[in-house]
């Protein structure tokens, strides 16, 4: 039985040594994973600083230019709209004045023609009675 206990103890010792080796291996893998994580994060930070930050600055500058141009276009559009509205109002006023002036002159001319016609009719009517 002592021999069996010696074999059992030997097997238990081997299992304990393997368990210690497994624990050390897991600790090593954990440390290696943490170191890899730190390196990857450093790489991402460097990449962001070298590549993404300048692109973002350029995009922000382009957006600022677009905003400025849009504001100017809006302002110029408003000025053109006011100018067109004023011109249309003046054209309408001028057309109304011309229409009124022509109407007055046509009415005067029509009155003169009616008067001349009435005189002629009156003269012709008198000659036919005489």
Give a structural overview.
With 130 residues, this protein is mainly alpha-helical. It is 98% helix and 0% strand. It has one helix at residues 2-129. The model has no long low-confidence stretch (mean pLDDT 88). The chain contains 1 helix and no strands.
Contiguous low-pLDDT stretches (5 residues minimum) are: none
Give the total of beta strands.
Answer: 0
* Element order: H for helix, E for strand: H
Q: What's the overall geometry? A: rod-shaped
Give the strand content: under 5%
Secondary-structure-derived class: mainly alpha
Key words describing this protein structure:
1 helix; 130 residues; mainly alpha
What's this, in brief?
The chain has 130 residues and is mostly helical.
Topology summary:
Blueprint: H1 2-129
């Amino acid at each position: 039985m002592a021999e069996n206990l010696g074999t059992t103890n030997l097997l238990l010792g081997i299992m304990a040594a393997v368990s210690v080796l497994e624990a050390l291996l897991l600790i090593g893998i954990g440390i290696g994973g943490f170191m890899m994580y730190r390196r990857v994060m450093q790489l991402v930070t460097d990449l962001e600083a070298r590549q993404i930050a300048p692109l973002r600055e350029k995009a922000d500058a382009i957006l600022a230019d677009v905003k400025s141009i849009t504001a100017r276009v809006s302002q110029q559009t408003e000025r053109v709209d006011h100018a067109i509205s004023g011109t249309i109002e003046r054209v309408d006023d001028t057309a109304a004045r011309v229409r009124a002036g022509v109407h007055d002159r046509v009415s005067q001319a029509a009155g003169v023609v009616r008067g001349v016609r009435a005189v002629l009719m009156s003269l012709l009517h008198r000659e036919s009675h005489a």
